[in-house]
Amino acid sequence: MRQPTDNMSIFKKRRQSLADRAKGAALVLISNPERIRNHDVHHAFRQDTNLYYLTGWEEPESILIFRPGQTPETVLFVRPKDVERETWDGFRYGPQGAQQHFGIDQAHLIDDFDKLAVDLLKTCDRLYYRFDIDEDFDHRMLGLLARVRRAHGRSGRGNMPIHDSAELVGELRVIKTEEDVHLMRRACSVTAKAHVEVMRATRPGVTERQLQGVFLHSIYQQNADREGYNSIVATGANACTLHYVFNDQTCRDGDLLLIDAGAEVRYYTGDITRTFPVNAKFTSAQRKVYDRVLEIQKELIGLSKPGLAFKQLQDRTIEYLTDAMIELKLLHVPRTEAIERQLFKKYYPHGVSHYLGMDVHDAGLYQIHNEPRRLEVGMAYTIEPGLYIPAEDASAPEELRGIGVRIEDNVVITAGGCEVMTSESPKEVADLEALVGRKA
Ligand code: GLY
Ligand code: MN
Ligand code: MN
Q1: CB 7 within 8 A of CB 102
Q2: pLDDT tens-digit readout, 324-373
Q3: Whole-number Å distance between alpha carbons of 328 and 412
Q4: What homologous superfamily does CATH list for 8-172?
Q5: Which helix (H) or strand (E) holds 354?
Q6: What is the mean pLDDT of the chain?
Q7: Catalytic residue (one of 52, 244, 347, 388)
Q8: Ligand 1 center from residue 252 Cα (angstroms)
Q9: Residue 3 neighbours by CB distance under 10 Å
Q10: Of 104, 124, 136, 403, whose CB has the highest number of CB atoms within 10 Å?
């Protein structure tokens, strides 16, 4: 049986915070669709993050209407109890259970949504809904809105204005509360410990998939719910493929291993990348790249404090990494020219950071009124500079070809700077060399 997964008061508190921003409005959130994998087997289901964030509700085929300040305020449409289906697919709460266990004002059968939604929406002055997630439901929403307009009769009211629900909820999610940070620390700690297990299990001859298995074993042993995203386990030049997905090669003596993997715990995910030598000893060429990336990553952590703009973090990263590329003889022009002509993108093509939380690339605006947003206490994000030198790059010094290094930690902004939540996973050369291949 699925239990309500957390202290229910967290969800109520979140709804209250949202209510302050959306008085008079209606927010409609739908569950993620279930996806067929093959025949009657489904892909693992994970609830829509915003729906979970506000309710703790994890069942598919569900819709929330949230009407701040009105009665009923929270209305949830859910699947019926069904003895036969529950025998096959597992427990369902049904409307009564939803109301009783989830602090929902009213719960109804999902099949009654179209019948009841007009009356619930017609007293609201605007709608928050995200189009483009479920096309079929988008059509239903448009039909519903036409019925709401007609229900207003000759009142002079037009169509309900529609705003994006993801932006509304995202702006709440972007500032983590104490409870959120508590859960994030757990996800980061589980992730960091699993990375240590992978380091211990790495040696020449082990496969990327076996190391992914070590990561999974460790996070499930620690009661994680799932991976926060598809793990990237990339040995040698595979590390230069940013979202490497195959994880099917053998780790070779003399190569590096890059692993980017995160555990999801209670819907919060860690997002750590570590790079270390398969045989526990960096070569001097690998050290040249690794030392520079590590130094830069630590600089960027040091810069992270309230008031800094995300764009400044990215600009500094580009400057530091471009300097490193020039030192390493990857680029042969001055820094300003390399930046102006975006030559650095050949070896560093991604952003240095993204928000982190319930989604690995978490919700929240990066610009406000076209101005770069500044960091605030409670924002959580990654710091992940990298250098990637393609194996076939004939213009790079030969010893550096095929080396890919990324180092990624997760931080939350505090009044005095930032807290690194992933520090249980080592990244210093001496610590890595002492750990790799040393089974506990
Ligand atoms: N793991 C994906 C990322 O680092 O953005
Ligand atoms: Mn990341
Ligand atoms: Mn990552």
Answers
A1: no
A2: 999 999 999 999 999 999 999 999 999 999 999 999 999 999 999 999 99
A3: 32
A4: Creatinase/prolidase N-terminal domain (3.40.350.10)
A5: none
A6: 96
A7: 388
A8: 24
A9: 9
A10: 403
Three-class DSSP category at 193? helix
- Domain 174-435 fold is Creatine Amidinohydrolase (3.90.230)
d(CA 410, ligand 1 centre) in Å: 11
Identify the residue whose tokens are 């890059």.
258
Nearest to 108 by CA among 64, 57, 148, 50: 64
Alpha carbon distance 397, 335 (integer Å) = 19
By the 10 Å C-beta count (0-12 exposed, 13-18 middle, 19+ buried), 355 is classed as buried
Domain ranges, ordered by start, for the chain: 8-172, 174-435
State both tokens at 324. 């490193």
Nearest-CA neighbor of 92 among 105, 104, 109, 75?
Answer: 109
Which residue(s) pair with 269 in the sheet?
264
Distance of CA 159 to the CA centre of its chain: 35
CA atoms of 306 and 286, how far apart (whole Å) = 34
- Is the model's pLDDT at 2 over the cut of 70? no
Beta bridge partners of 406: 386
SS3 229: coil
Mutate to test the pocket of ligand 1, among 258, 361, 409 (most ligand atoms within 8 A of CB): 361
Domains 8-172 and 174-435 share a fold: no
Quick: pLDDT tens for 229-261. Answer: 999 999 999 999 999 999 999 999 999 999 999
Residues 6 or more apart whose CB falls under 8 angstroms from that of 157 comprise 149
Return the exposure string of 32-55: e unless at least 16 CB atoms fall within 10 Å of the residue's CB, then b.
Answer: beeeeeeeeeeeeeebbbbbbbbb
Q: Which residues pair with 112 in a beta bridge?
A: none
Is 354 tagged catalytic? yes
Q: For residue 136, which of 245, 287, 33 has the smallest C-alpha distance? A: 33
